[in-house]
Design the sequence.
């Protein structure tokens, strides 16, 4: 695999205090422990630093709800759980990123699972001349998986970084990486992505 920095973007998805922080709203979910055990935040940070150094675009995608979740639909258990936990609210510590954007990075906000759903992401990627996206972040079998599926449907080549994604358990991780995404994305480790970027 070779990645052209001028045509490749890194998506850092939902790596926020509430999703993977040990004191976040979903601290008891298992995701913070999973992320810590696998060094997900550190690997995502390495990826972001390397992409910037190579001249490739880094895009942070954050789930952001308004105070009181006043305009957030509750049509699925995932969205109900965010509202019930009062999580990922604009201006709060819980919504803040654990991988801090660097100079030249782009931030996209979302309220759904997919980073493409009702956001400016596709417009930005096309404007940047991106043809390949590399996805890391949380949670693997929700936001990351949905984003990878949508990216493929939008016509992008997709790479999912298998050791820079986190979810609530090894079972959920394996379900996404070993089954759901096998025909959607190229599965690569952090080291493999960095080697392909050189």
Sequence:
């Amino acid at each position: 695999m070779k990645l052209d920095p001028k045509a490749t973007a890194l998506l850092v998805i939902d790596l926020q205090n509430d999703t993977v922080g040990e004191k976040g709203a979903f601290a008891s979910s298992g995701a913070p422990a999973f992320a810590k055990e696998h060094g997900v935040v550190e690997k995502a940070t390495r990826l972001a630093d390397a992409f910037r150094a190579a001249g490739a675009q880094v895009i942070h995608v954050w789930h952001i709800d308004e105070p009181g979740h006043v305009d957030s639909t509750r049509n699925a258990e995932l969205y109900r759980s965010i509202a019930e936990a009062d999580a990922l609210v604009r201006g709060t510590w819980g919504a803040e990123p654990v991988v801090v954007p660097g100079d030249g990075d782009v931030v996209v906000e979302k309220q759904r699972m997919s980073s493409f759903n009702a956001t400016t992401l596709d417009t930005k990627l096309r404007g940047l001349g991106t043809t390949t996206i590399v996805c890391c972040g949380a949670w693997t079998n929700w936001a990351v998986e949905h984003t990878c599926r949508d990216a493929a449907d939008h016509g992008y080549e997709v790479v999912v970084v298998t050791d820079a994604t986190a979810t609530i358990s090894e079972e959920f991780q394996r379900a996404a990486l070993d089954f759901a995404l096998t025909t959607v994305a190229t599965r690569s480790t952090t080291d493999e992505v960095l080697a392909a970027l050189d």
